[in-house]
Amino acid sequence: MAAGTRPRGAGRVQVLETARRLFTLHGVEGTSLQAIADLMGVSKAAVYYHFKTKDDLVRGVLEPIIAGIAELARVIGAQRGRNARLDAMLIGIVDLAVAHNDEFQVVMGDPYIGSVLQAEVDALGFAELAESLALTGTDPATMATRVALSVFVTGLRGPLTDPELLALGDAALREHLIESGRRLLGIRRRPHAL
Amino acid sequence: MAAGTRPRGAGRVQVLETARRLFTLHGVEGTSLQAIADLMGVSKAAVYYHFKTKDDLVRGVLEPIIAGIAELARVIGAQRGRNARLDAMLIGIVDLAVAHNDEFQVVMGDPYIGSVLQAEVDALGFAELAESLALTGTDPATMATRVALSVFVTGLRGPLTDPELLALGDAALREHLIESGRRLLGIRRRPHAL
DNA sequence: GTCTATAGATCGATAGAC
DNA sequence: GTCTATCGATCTATAGAC
Q1: Which chain A residues are within 8 Å of B159, Cβ to Cβ?
Q2: Mind listing the pLDDT tens digit for each residue in B30-53?
Q3: pLDDT band at B170 (very low <50, low <70, confident <90, very high)
């Protein structure tokens, strides 16, 4: 395996971590490969050794949270009852966002990723997920739930970028976010299956 | 004042509208002045006649909603009682977001605007606003409200970018968003002053 | 007020030495 | 695995003709 002496970090993982941080701060289009290389103290060509194109790098950065979302869809599908599924989705998405904060910011906030991740996003199974949550209708009650769910998922970005709220720590922030989601969606503490 | 025959729109207002649409779709960094000029059917230099730099153009696009936020801060300050102020803020921010949807997306979502609007954002009086809402403490109840408020303001972006929810129309969407905010913040329909 | 032309910088990406 | 050097494209911005 030839794991020789590596004087300073310039491996694949280091590139991913550096890119993730810069993407979060300045967006994908606002982050050049030169800036990534500079922050690592290596040359631009060294970055290209690990990733053939910038889009590949973007995909690499987003891979963990994409996988997490797919897994979440599976977990939710295993729940029985509409409220149990809603609550599982709520908790799962909060856990994902807290655990993969940086990637979550990029996925939810960057206007660029849509063009590079359209296929992956479509394959996440969100369409089937919405169906299993009975969120495909257009009656007023359903629309209210859809609006609330959209506000919640998008809104997670707020506290997760506010330094004063991040200072609460992951655990406390998680509780606050779940509580916010339950209020928004009108879910009781211990949901019963319908 | 010499309003001669203008064969096709290439005035200052048309530049602003075109830029606003492209900024919303592809972000500020993802929108070149060439793309704006192309969509208008004019040359790049024609755009530079109206705006000296790209940052000037960004500021021009964001000016209406920035003014709206400043005005909102004034309106909220005139309310008496904490719940009345919270409710006024909630309704005001929803009205602003619905009325200036495109600009709202750019302000809330684009990683670039922070660097160009830092001074303007600081001057919006949000710090004083938070104080007047008694949201400066760090006790659990205050933090819960701060998290909820952050989720709500950031979350408005969700429904306002979802075509299926936008199809509800401004009026219905407005009601849904206000209802969501009241649930999140635990505000009753007709708020009484404390 | 709009144009062509171009300067100067930076971008993504590649080639080839070590 | 990292480097220097470079290509071609694109970007912001300016100069000057009409």
Answers
A1: 147, 150-151
A2: 999 999 999 999 999 999 999 999
A3: very high
Cβ contacts of residue B174 below 8 Å, gap of 6+?
B94, B95, B98
Q: Which of B27, B22, B75 is nearest to B47 (CA)?
A: B22
Q: What is the pLDDT of residue B2?
A: 40
Given CA atoms A150, A156, A158, A161 in this order, what sign does their dihedral have? negative
User: For chain B, what are the domain ranges?
Assistant: 12-50, 62-185
Q: Which of B28, B98, B164, B180 is most worth mutating to test chain A (most A CB atoms within 10 A of its CB)?
A: B180
Q: How many angstroms separate the CA of B14 from the C1' of D10?
A: 24
Mean pLDDT of B95-122: 89
- pLDDT given at position A125: 62
Q: How far is A165 from chain B (nearest CA, A)?
A: 7
Of B14, B16, B19, nearest to B110 (Cα)?
A: B19
Which of B101, B107, B118, B147 best tests the A interface by mutation, with the highest count of A CBs <10 A?
B147
Give the class (CATH, top level) of B12-50.
mainly alpha
